[in-house]
Design brief:
- There is one protein chain.
- The protein has 450 residues and is of the alpha/beta class.
- The protein folds into two domains: 6-22 and 70-230, Phosphatidylinositol Transfer Protein Sec14p (3-Layer(aba) Sandwich), CATH 3.40.525; 255-439, Phosphatidylinositol 3-kinase, Chain A.
- It is built from 21 helices and five strands.
- The chain has helices at residues 6-28, 52-55, 73-76, 109-121, 145-154, 157-160, 173-182, 188-191, 200-206, 216-229, 255-261, 269-281, 295-306, 320-331, 343-347, 357-365, 370-387, 390-393, 397-408, 418-433, 435-438, and strands at 81-86, 91-97, 128-133, 163-169, 194-197.
- A hairpin with a 4-residue loop joins strand 1 (81-86) and strand 2.
- The protein is elongated and about 75 Å long.
Length: 450
């Protein structure tokens, strides 16, 4: 069976997080560019509290700490971390809330790691439990995987030996993929301490939540999940009736619809404009197509395209905006560019001998509808150009395949699984690297190339 590389898993994790974020935005109008306000929580004044000697100083539980001279004020003021005592087990509870993390440009993640270690240093000689609220982790506030690896390595045996349990509340596919990435680093003993908790009611089965300050965003998210589980409507939400697409619509409509509404133009305007801009300005940008852009900004650009308004990429000052727009367009097609019927043939590429794979890919593409073939050839011609600059932009055919494979093909039911990711990337890499051979025998009459 094909193995899944760490790079594949990281790419899939990014895709899952983006998908979760898009779904959350669509349902609730969340604005990830709007940081949560700092929270103020007073520490316990109860002298009988088992940790009063520490809590009275307000180092941790005063998450809205007004002492600007505190060495970790810049992190502590957000209230991301809370420490309390658990009356049931007489040991500490540490709560980490993703929804309270501000955008990355407002938070020094290296300082955050130091703050976590500074906090744990005060308690690691006692038993403690960690509760991680995953809801609210977004593409604009998440730490990098490199940071996560460093964090795990920094938390040596001193920190791990007295950790009794790690509860991950409201886990998503992103969390499960990240766990797969980290499995080679994680000991079996530590792995047994992890428990996924789908609902807050389940968390209360494991520990007392009376002293655990649960952010309002997490409470609302839990209510929505439970309502959805019961088949009822989401609280305080209304599902608008579906609206017909605008004549100028570019995202979420078929290629045929775009042709009909754009006077027979075969290459969708959003594709031709992003590719043209990137060809002129972005071929030598390191990590092109691997970097993200602000989610709300991407939504704004999509809206402009859908309304038929001009988009001037120069005004955004970020070469990654058109790169993300191109990927988003492909991902939001009702049917993938490589079409549903070809999905299983693409998956079978791993069963073909390496020497025959280029010919096989060429044969598979022969059955594509003319319009799909023309748009695909236009895109792959451009990606081949990008790969030729890989010494500078670090985007080899393999790296580009990791980005574009999942945006070119997916099954008609469900999503791309971990095991299906490798053949999809292999197929896409062949199309990019051997573009001139794969697309040599078929030249559509109305062919357009970048």
């Amino acid at each position: 069976m094909a193995t899944i590389s760490a790079t594949d898993l990281e790419q899939l994790a990014e895709i899952e997080l983006q998908k979760e974020e898009d779904e959350e935005q669509g349902r609730h109008g969340y604005r990830p560019d709007r940081p949560p306000p700092p929270r103020r929580v007073s520490f316990s004044q109860d002298t009988s509290h088992p940790y009063y000697d520490v809590a009275r100083h307000g180092i941790l539980q005063v998450t809205g700490n007004q002492d600007t001279s505190h060495p970790y004020y810049d992190v502590a003021r957000h209230g991301i971390l809370q420490v309390t005592g658990n009356q049931d087990t007489s040991h500490l509870l540490l709560r980490f809330s993703s929804c309270l993390m501000p955008p990355s440009h407002q938070l020094n993640h290296h300082h955050l790691l130091q703050y976590l270690m500074y906090t744990l240093d005060q308690y690691v000689e006692s038993d403690y439990t960690v509760v991680y609220f995953h809801h609210g982790l977004r593409s604009n506030n998440k730490p990098s995987l490199h940071w996560l690896r460093n964090a795990y390595r920094e938390f040596d045996r001193k920190y791990k030996k007295n950790l009794k349990a790690l509860y991950v509340v409201h886990p998503t596919n992103f969390i499960r993929i990240i766990w797969n990435i980290f499995q080679p680093l994680i000991s079996h003993k530590f792995g047994k301490k992890l428990t996924y908790v789908n609902y807050l009611a389940e968390l209360r089965d494991h520990l007392s939540c009376d002293q655990l300050l649960i952010p309002p965003d997490v409470l609302r998210h839990d209510e929505r999940l439970r309502a959805a589980q019961k088949g009822g409507p989401h609280p305080s939400s209304k599902t608008p009736p579906p609206r017909p697409p605008l004549p100028t619509q570019q995202f979420g409509v078929s290629l045929q619809y775009i042709v009909e509404k754009n006077q027979g133009v075969m290459i969708p305007p959003v594709m031709s404009q992003t590719v043209s801009y990137l060809k002129d300005k972005g071929l030598q940008t390191e990590g092109i197509f691997r970097r993200s852009a602000r989610v709300q900004l991407i939504k704004d650009v999509q809206k402009l395209y859908n309304q038929g308004k001009p988009v001037v990429f120069e005004q955004y000052g970020d070469i990654h905006v058109p790169a993300v727009i191109l990927k988003t367009f492909l991902r939001e097609l009702p049917e993938p560019l490589l079409t549903f019927p070809l999905y299983h043939q693409i998956q079978d590429i791993v069963r073909v001998e390496s020497s025959l794979r280029v010919t096989t890919c060429k044969s598979i593409l022969e059955s594509l509808p003319e319009h799909n073939y023309m748009v695909l050839k236009y895109l792959l011609c451009f990606l081949n150009m990008v790969s030729q600059q890989s010494i500078v932009n670090k985007m080899s055919p393999s790296n580009l395949a990791c980005v574009f494979g999942v945006n070119l093909s997916w099954p008609s039911q469900g999503s791309v699984s971990l095991t299906s990711l490798t053949p999809l990337n292999i197929f896409t890499e062949i199309l990019i690297e051997h573009y001139h051979t794969v697309f040599s025998s078929r030249c559509p009459q109305a062919e357009v190339l970048p």
